[in-house]
Design a protein that fits this description.
Elements (H helix, E strand, L loop, with lengths): L2 E4 L5 H4 L4 E3 L3 E4 L10 E5 L5 E7 L5 E8 L9 H12 L1 H5 L5 E6 L8 E6 L2 E6 L2 H5 L1 H11 L5 E5 L3 H5 L8 E6 L6 E5 L2 E5 L14 H9 L5 E5 L5 H8 L4 E6 L2 H13 L6 E6 L2 H10 L4 E6 L11 H18 E11 L6 H15 L3 E7 L18 E7 L1
Parallel strand pairs: 1-4, 9-10, 14-15, 14-17, 15-16, 17-18
Antiparallel strand pairs: 1-3, 2-6, 4-5, 5-6, 7-8, 8-9, 10-11, 12-13, 18-20, 19-20
Helix pairs in contact: 2-5, 7-8, 10-11, 11-12
Bound molecules: S-adenosyl-L-homocysteine (SAH).
Length: 400
């Protein structure tokens, strides 16, 4: 096997079992020369000692993603299959309990398959491959998923997205079936008391924000009798949970007409109830100002914006964006009102997000209790040695 030799003094991260080898840590290659894109290479210390084994990528700042630590080389024949099998096995409790039939089956580094994401939607699996090593092994991943994912009818791939281009991977075919049958245009899933249509070809990520499952339940549980403003609604998730839990009114706001159209159709899948529903296609930054100018108020506001900071360098600009919407929302809340606010920017860590919220509260001149904190669900595990895997934070606040 080819060898990636680390610079002297740059072995520490690998010894601490961090799974990324950055370009700056690489001194050069062994006698076999540079590995090919995605090839498994031996990661060696400056002295030549074997530290682990990783998937190489010349196009990425992350030059190697470690798939195995220690001296023993992973067996290329069985490796992917056994990792997929273990990952699916760890989700057995999701399949045992009937709360949902939509689960993340493989979560990248945390499941030992860096750059592989596989989301299960009622018998169909949608993958994303965002590292050269993952891309090279997608046929093996798909065939393993066909065997291990319960009642699996087909495995497909979403190949669009910025994450792939950063890694030097092509994105021309946005969608491809890898194994089994081709999935339908929309897949109906169940989550708790709600049902949703998932557009696996045109929707965001693999089609649905599975990572917000626990937060949707937490928000729903507080929504009874409240007038709810669900900002950045996408296909209606938080708003439909609030509706199912007895909200008096729900306003769903998103900038995407297509997302709102699906949100409306999703409403049609739910049990009839007395909640008044309103759909607004608007920019949330402007819509919150409009509400302020018109003197509107709400009992509950959800803010689940897209990632404002793609990189650490954009963090200050992102912080201003988060402060802006949170300050506006805090001012629109009635006494005892609930603000459920989220950040999925990995570059903004939880303490910084809290600081932004505290500053917004101070500017709003109001006090808030922290009622709950939410995270991605247990099907989105994070490696203890890889805190970068944790990106989603939620804070549920109550105005006093
Ligand atoms: N809460 C959703 C996921 C939200 S994803 C769920 O649980 O499923 C973020 C959404 O924000 C996307 O639907 C996107 O269309 C929308 N969006 C992005 N920028 C926006 C803006 N400035 N104003 C309103 N919506 C925006």
């Amino acid at each position: 096997m080819k060898e990636i030799r680390l610079k002297k003094g740059r072995e520490r991260c690998v010894l601490r079992r961090h799974p990324w080898v950055f370009s700056g840590a690489v001194a050069g290659f062994g006698p076999g020369g540079e590995p090919a894109a995605g090839e498994t290479a031996r990661i060696a210390s400056s002295e030549g000692e074997t530290l682990g084994w990783g998937w190489y990528s010349a196009a990425s700042q992350i030059r190697a993603r470690i798939v195995s630590f220690g001296k023993e080389a992973p067996d290329e024949e069985s490796f992917v299959r056994s990792r997929v099998g273990s990952a699916v096995g760890r989700r057995a409790d999701f399949f045992a309990d009937a709360y949902t039939n939509a689960v993340r089956l493989v979560n990248s580094e945390a499941d030992g398959l860096p750059g592989v994401v596989a989301d299960y939607y009622a018998g169909w699996v949608v993958c994303q491959f965002t590292s050269a090593g993952a891309d090279l092994r997608k046929a093996d991943v798909a065939s393993a998923l066909m065997s291990y994912a319960p009642f699996c009818r087909g495995v497909c791939e979403r190949c669009d997205g910025a994450a792939r281009s950063v890694e030097g991977l092509s994105g021309e075919d946005a969608f491809r079936t890898l194994a089994g049958d081709e999935p339908p245009a929309e897949i109906e899933i169940a989550e708790g008391q709600c049902k949703f249509l998932v557009d696996v070809r045109g929707g965001h990520k693999t089609g649905f924000y599975l990572d917000q499952r626990d937060a949707r339940a937490a928000v729903g549980a507080l929504a009874n009798g409240r007038e709810v403003l669900n900002c950045f609604s996408y296909t209606g998730g938080f708003g439909l949970f609030a509706r199912a839990c007895g909200a008096s009114k729900v306003v769903q706001v998103d900038i995407s007409g297509a997302a709102l159209a699906l949100a409306k159709r999703n409403e049609g899948l739910q049990h009839a109830c007395g909640t008044e529903m309103e759909y607004v296609e608007a920019d949330v930054f402007q819509y919150l100002r409009k509400c302020r100018d018109e003197g509107k108020s709400f009992d509950m506001i959800v803010l689940d914006p897209p990632k404002f900071a793609a990189a650490k360098s954009r963090i200050m600009k992102a912080a201003r964006g988060y402060k802006d919407i949170n300050l506006l929302a805090m001012k629109l809340l009635r006494p005892d009102g609930i603000l459920a606010t989220f950040s999925c920017s990995g570059a903004m860590d939880a303490p910084l997000f809290d600081k932004v919220l505290s500053e917004a509260a101070a500017d709003a001149g109001r006090d808030f209790q922290v009622v709950a904190r939410t995270h991605a669900g247990k099907d989105h595990p994070v490696l203890l040695s890889h805190p970068e895997g944790e990106y989603l934070k939620g804070v549920v606040l109550r105005a006093t």
